[in-house]
Amino acid sequence: MNKRSFNLEIKAVQEDGFFSGYGAVFGNLDWYNDIILPGAFKQTLADWAEKGKFPPVLWNHSTNEPIGVYTKMVEDEKGLYVEGKLLINDVPRAKATHALLKAKAIDGMSIGYRTIKSSYNESTDVRELIQLGLDEISIVTMPANEKSTVTSVKSILEEGALPTLPEFEKFLRESGFSKSQATAIAGKGLRHLLSESEDEKSQAKSIQNALSILKGNQNA
């Protein structure tokens, strides 16, 4: 499951735990060079409607900490508009989250989703997310978009998954590789890069640093 975060554009926070806002916005080029296109949630919302419910309100993507229920989810011209209710009388974490939202101490919302259909433009390094499968929407303390690619790639690997090609290339660039080196490593592998020339071999000495980061031996 991928995660994508936004600053929660809160429209209302009421005393009974009701809140509303946008969980995702369209046409916004995020830190990962991804853009969510209008219509990306159309099918997944229809699928949830067939189940007669919406995804849960989670705290920081923890499946062990549901804190409320969503009562409305619709796509409009701006993005994914949501309304929900925090169970402030029954769940301590929900009560605390409610207080923090009212005080504007936190304003992050993050969607947990599966990419069903996307399009990648190599020349612009931008991926358009055309269709998404929505699994949950969390209220978070720190939006994932503010994390470095190194951190996010390490997290993906720790979960036993593999990063996308753009994510891995960005990770390599942050680790000190040139654009051409990152493209060669991600697209053709280390063997290709190291067999090119002595000059490229010399430039690629930072590979060990990158691998150390991947293995968690260095701080991101």
Spell out the blueprint of helices and strands.
Layout: E1 2-7, E2 9-13, E3 18-25, E4 34-36, H1 42-51, E5 56-59, E6 62-75, E7 79-86, H2 92-102, E8 108-121, E9 126-140, H3 149-158, H4 165-174, H5 179-188, H6 190-194, H7 198-203, H8 207-215
Parallel strand pairs: 4-9, 5-9
Antiparallel strand pairs: 1-8, 2-3, 3-7, 5-6, 6-7, 8-9
Helix pairs in contact: 4-5
Question: What descriptive keywords fit this protein?
Answer:
220 residues; alpha+beta; nine-stranded mixed beta sheet; 9 strands; 32% helix
Percentage of residues assigned to helices: 25-40%
Percent of residues in β-strands = 35-45%
* Helix and strand sequence: EEEEHEEEHEEHHHHHH
Number of helices: 8
The chain-level structural class is alpha+beta
In terms of quaternary structure, what is this?
Answer: single chain
Separation of the first and last Cα atoms: 22 Å
How confident is the prediction overall: mean pLDDT?
A: 77
| Count of distinct structural domains | 2
Main sheet?
Answer: 9 strands, mixed
Q: What is the C-alpha radius of gyration, as a whole number of Å?
A: 20 Å
| Shape estimate | elongated
- How many beta-strand segments? 9
Structure description:
The protein contains eight helices and nine strands. Mean pLDDT is 77; it is low at 144-149. The chain is 32% helix and 35% strand. It has two domains: 2-145, no CATH class; 151-215, no CATH class. Strands 1, 2, 3, 4, 5, 6, 7, 8 and 9 form a nine-stranded mixed beta sheet that branches. It has helices spanning 42-51, 92-102, 149-158, 165-174, 179-188, 190-194, 198-203, 207-215, and strands at 2-7, 9-13, 18-25, 34-36, 56-59, 62-75, 79-86, 108-121, 126-140. It is α+β, with helices and mostly antiparallel strands and 220 residues long.
